[in-house]
Amino acid sequence: MSRVGKNPVPVPAGVEVAITGQQIKAKGKLGALSLDLMREVSIEQENGAVVVRPRDDSIRARMMWGTARTLVANLVTGVSTGFSRKLDINGVGYRAQLQGSTLVLQLGYSHDIRYPIPEGIKIECPDLTHIIVHGTDKQQVGQVAAVIRGFRPVEPYKAKGIKYDDEIVLRKEGKKK
């Protein structure tokens, strides 16, 4: 039995959930999201919560049970509170700034990197060395943060580059004479 899948997903106040077949739609203060679930699981709404159950006792159905429940939970959380990911920039002359709907990064290359902000994502730069990515879709927020981090990943010798706020960089010792 799935420890994750057996827990129902509570629907907070202000969020409307509509289930039609294998599709679930959630609408909240931050927007609306929809998700098509795999056919191995069934989905129902009971007592102000969404319940996900496997259709049969196959191995694949049990694997998809916890996954589907987590996807539904992310859907509900996304339209009610949203998701965010914080990035830090370390390095002399490295900085980020917003110009309209474009994130401009100066990362030690001979040119500036211009990253157009995708639809459904909001990016903030509270100062020149921090970036905060906001959005309702957890997968999209993580993907945008990973793309930005990929422009200059942290190197282990001087820890220069872009890293996640909670990332730990293991430093290496340099050359010895």
Plain-language structure description:
The protein is α+β, with helices and mostly antiparallel strands. The protein folds into two domains: 9-80, Alpha-Beta Complex (Outer Surface Protein A, domain 3); 83-164, Ribosomal protein L6 (Outer Surface Protein A, domain 3, Alpha-Beta Complex). Helices cover 20% and strands 38% of the residues. It is built from two helices and 13 strands, in the order ββββββαββββββαβ. The chain has helices spanning 59-80, 138-150, and strands spanning 9-10, 16-20, 23-28, 31-36, 41-46, 49-54, 83-90, 95-99, 102-106, 113-116, 121-124, 130-135, 161-164. A four-stranded antiparallel β-sheet has the order 11-12-7-13, with helices on one face. A three-stranded antiparallel β-sheet has the order 1-6-5. A three-stranded antiparallel β-sheet has the order 2-3-4, covered by helices on one side. A hairpin with a 2-residue loop joins strand 5 and strand 6. The chain is elongated, with a radius of gyration of 21 Å. The chain starts with 8 loop residues before the first strand and ends in a 13-residue tail after the last strand. The model has no long low-confidence stretch (mean pLDDT 93). Part of the 50S ribosomal subunit. InterPro entries: Ribosomal_uL6-like, Ribosomal_uL6-like_a/b-dom_sf, Ribosomal_uL6_a/b-dom, Ribosomal_uL6_bac-type. This protein binds to the 23S rRNA, and is important in its secondary structure. It is located near the subunit interface in the base of the L7/L12 stalk, and near the tRNA binding site of the peptidyltransferase center. Keywords: Ribonucleoprotein, Ribosomal protein, RNA-binding, rRNA-binding. Belongs to the universal ribosomal protein uL6 family.
